[in-house]
């Protein structure tokens, strides 16, 4: 057994939804005792740091039901089955912002909430945006407003907690660090 590994004894599937699956696993702990783990299975997601020709960052504002408020975020969305992160990035950029790009730069990836979910988030950056003549329609249940902010404005939004999610905070910090080099 690997260091700290927990061996799954039994899995009970609780819910299989459009975005997530919920399961409860019975596990054997490294010390031989047993415990339960409530797990969210997620197909993964992509987010895009999109920079306009006039050096503004493209954001979307949308209502987030779990938070019961709207927040400002970089464009993002979940991976569809069989879709590569790069394809998802371009699709989500087009659907949410009306921009497209032919040049994506991989920045990083990370697990969003490893204590209970397996969601793996990929972050890309592009500064070669092209406005679509015929923007794609977004999801029927998704309502967004596009914002283009300077880095200083985005940092102010972080202070005001209008930007209040990990991926977007990461994007602002990343751009801040790039500016210091």
TrEMBL record:
SUPFAM superfamilies: Nudix. Keywords: Hydrolase. Its cofactor is Mg(2+). Pfam families: NUDIX (PF00293). Residues 40-176 form the Nudix hydrolase domain. It is an enzyme of class 3 (hydrolase). GO terms for molecular function: hydrolase activity. Belongs to the Nudix hydrolase family. This is NUDIX hydrolase. It comes from Virgibacillus byunsanensis.
């Amino acid at each position: 057994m690997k260091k700290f590994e927990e061996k799954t004894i039994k899995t009970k599937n609780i819910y299989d939804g459009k975005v997530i699956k919920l399961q409860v696993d019975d596990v054997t702990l490294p010390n031989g005792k047993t415990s339960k783990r409530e797990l969210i299975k997620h197909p993964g997601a992509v987010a895009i740091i999109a920079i306009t020709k006039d050096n503004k960052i493209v954001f979307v504002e949308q209502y987030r039901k779990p938070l019961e408020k709207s927040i400002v975020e970089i464009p993002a969305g979940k991976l569809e089955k069989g879709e590569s992160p790069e394809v998802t990035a371009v699709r989500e950029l087009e659907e949410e912002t009306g921009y497209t790009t032919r040049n994506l730069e991989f920045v990083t990836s990370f697990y969003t909430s490893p204590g209970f979910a397996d969601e793996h988030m990929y972050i890309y950056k592009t500064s070669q945006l092209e406005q679509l003549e015929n923007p794609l329609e977004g999801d029927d249940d998704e309502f967004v407003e596009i914002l283009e902010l300077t880095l200083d404005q985005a940092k102010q939004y972080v202070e005001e907690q209008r930007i209040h999610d990990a991926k977007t905070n990461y994007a602002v910090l990343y751009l801040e660090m790039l500016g210091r080099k």
